Amino acid sequence: MAIEVTPGMFSSQQVKPSMKAGLVMAAFTLLTLITFGFGGNPAIVTFQLTEKGHALSVADFAVSSSGFALLVGGLMGVITLVATALTILKRVVPMWLSLIFGLLWVSALLGWLAAGNVVPVSFILSNAVVLAVPIILGALGGVISERVGVVNIAIEGQLLTGAFVASVIGSVTDNLWLGVLAAAIASAILSMALASLAIKYLVDQIIIGVLINLLVIGVTNFLYSQWLANDGQNVNYPGTFDVLAIPYLSEIPIIGPALFANRVTVYLCFILVPLVWFMLFRTKLGLRARAVGEHPLAADTVGINVARTRFWWVTAGGAIAGIGGAALSIGNVGAFGREMSGGLGFIALAVVILGRWQPFYVSAAALLFGFAIIMRVWANQVSPGIPTDFITMVPYVVTLIAVTGFAGKVRPPAASGEPYTKG
Amino acid sequence: MTEKSKFQTVVREIMATSVTRVVLSILLGFFFGGIFMVLFNENVVATYSTLFTTPGDTFVAAFNTIVDGYGALLRGAIFNPEGRDLVAMFRPITETLRMAAPLVMAGLGLALGFRVGLFNIGGTGQIVMGLAGATWVATRMELPPVIHMIVAVIAAVVCAAAWGAFAGFLKARTGAHEVIVTIMMNYIALDFFTWMLRTKGLLLAATGGGTPKSDPPAATSMLPTLFGDMYKIHIGIFIAIAATFAYWLLMERSAIGYRFRMVGHNANAARAAGIKVESTFVWAMAVSAAFIGLAAANQALSNPGGITTSLNADIGFDAITVALLGGNSAKRIAAAGLLFGAFKAGSPAMQVVGVSPEILGVVQALIVLFIAAPPLIKAMLRLPEPAAEQKVVA
After folding, report:
1. Are the C-beta atoms of residues A50 and A58 closer than 8 Å to each other?
2. How far apart are the CA of B331 and the nearest CA of chain A, in angstroms?
3. Is B315 part of the contact surface with chain A (CB cutoff 8 Å)?
4. pTM assigned to the model
5. Do B174 and A206 touch (CB under 8 A)?
6. Nearest 5°: CA angle at B228, between B222 and B231?
7. Domains (ranges, CATH) in chain B?
8. ipTM for the complex shown
């Protein structure tokens, strides 16, 4: 099978480059230049690139806050021009260019927030990574299930199930690995319910997803207050995995501690992202899965069992989201808390779209949200006067811009959300 | 548009659920809720060790748990024969009515969206925007009594409706799915509201410190209570009844409602018949959110303590269950609101007898799950395919 299925292959809808991407970028560039640059504070901001006590240390990077914003704003302006030029030439603006643009904006924002202060770059990065992991894993589950044509609104419920089961099984067996395994299994079973109702019984996928979320919230809340809260020592005291620093790699300045000094759940995530990408885009199984999601009738015609393919991929996606839940409880906090997923599942839903149903882009988008969460915490301490609520809002606004097709058409798998009946 | 029409078929099926199935769903919801309650109850768990020697103990303990739990629910939600005096005995039913009012209003709004084929999950955001509007008027303006209250209610309705209409506009204009759009707008609204509550001169209480909390609403803007200080119940319940009637008039007896239903039934046919489907989406979202705005006003103007962020936002999600259970009839939505309002009112009483009231969240989700997924209940009870239901379609 040499044919590669690309999004849009079976769809008559063309991905049209649109001038709007340039407009959005221009708006962000102007914001940076005017608010952070010309209107900014010229005080010195220090980017602390390595934590103290590291073998390989890099000198801190100190610069005037407003000057830095002007410099970064200039770079963003260049990217805006390139993007506009590409659009005029009727070419699609590559995703990585948007990512660099976003990264530049985030650094300008950091510099502006911390004028006269220190930015602990690696601290922020490593926290963003840890916070992003449940979102990434939840979104991977979403990507898988939407790629085969089942809309998964129940990510929130899957994360919560994973977090709960991981904590309980981890405590009872005193083995965190069993906790992760149990989380994956429990969430996979939940996904089987979603899959069979959606695929076999053709119940609306969105409604069933919403209701599964409500049910899981109800059940875990009940069990938490009736059981875990009374017997916490025995059933909700799993602790967390130890932080494993990979020798040498974790010494790399800036990104080393963020990427290579983490708990096992984070490394699991690093393995799963490329694995899912490989399975979906480089194997026969993945090709079939995507065919089912793009054009189930065609897939059926060449002998692929649509219902069975959907069922097992959705189940696998659920297992991954369950691990994401485990990352939340035994991979970070060390216990289960009431409604501890707190909307991360809905963020993951947004991330799936923002990352255009591609595992790597999805991870990048999840990092954006991870950043936003840690940024709020940190910005509140550094400069209390700044309305941090607007910073938290940014990822949601970006997602809204993305889904409303303002910055180029986003195209979901063609048959996503559509039940398929044979015949 | 095929996806849309599939969604509409399913929603129509849910809406047209027969009374028998609703009753069965409710009973099954309580039944499975009872099982959960028993499995994790301390008194019952204590008898597990002797389950095989004296199984009777376990059954007795299980039976007692269920009777205690649901008995407490009834005492807390309808009538409390153990009350000190008559006033206390009748308090539960007034609490149920008080709790039901916002659920009915918001449920009507979401149900309206469903009938146009819009799955509005944005209840939370719309509630929050309504709260912001009402609270601003109630704490920052000085107006004579009654007028103040009316202006505050209108502010809530307008703010919520505008927020909903914007979601409808984004859907109509760009074709983005309303579920994703409204979820994102929920978070944006929550952040915006938190910012308002934190900012001096906007909503932050004059005496407020670090916590984001508003002043209590001015006495002139409060919804008057019905029995003075005796009960907490206020005129919100009458607003809810009026809203139910207005919903019925709008959907069943007006040209706009006819257009709404037509688009919900088959958007393509409606378009062919000359209806502007896109602008109907915007209007429907606005009206849907206006009902939710009423619920927001009800909450903002009845809470003498001032508003915080965490408060009330979950009404948006509860309203989804009310709308799905209520289906396409205004009366049934009101009944669904009463049922779930009773759950809220009965919670504290359950806590007292040692049954975690969170079980009601499970029961609530189960009931609606059974309604929304007919195959579940059919498989469980081996019901025949209900042939008569096709006629009930709006």
Report:
1. yes
2. 22
3. no
4. 0.87
5. no
6. 95
7. 2-392 (1.10.3470)
8. 0.86
